Amino acid sequence: FALEAAPSANDVLGEAVLCGDVALVRLLLDGNASVESSVGSPPRSLLRAAVSEEHQEMVLLLLMYGADLQREQEGEDVWNGQQLLHWAAAQGYVEVVRALLDRGADGADGRE
């Protein structure tokens, strides 16, 4: 019989972010899980996952633990050319938008 490998802390972290389990995410980040890990297929950052699930508290927690908001703003735009902040605004995720702006997200859309 074949033994399956146990999921890594980062795998569990990704699932906890998607489920909105703030307590488990905090526990894993206090341990050895990385706030810069990814989740899903195709992979996306934990911060993008939290935003797409409209988990405001999770967004704040990930930013508090060092999720790189600047990288998200400069990285590839995976939502039809929209940056993280603009995508959240287009979805009507007001509290998530507030959380991102409070933590320094740039409201400029890059258009001239």
From TrEMBL:
Keywords associated with the record: ANK repeat, Repeat
Key word Repeat present: yes
ANK repeats: 80-106
SMART domains noted in UniProt: ANK
Protein origin, superkingdom: Eukaryota
SUPFAM superfamilies, per database record: Ankyrin repeat
InterPro entries associated with the record: Ankyrin_rpt, Ankyrin_rpt-contain_sf
Annotated Pfam families: Ank_2
Presence of keyword Cytoplasm: no
Protein name in the entry: Uncharacterized protein
Source organism (scientific name): Haptolina ericina
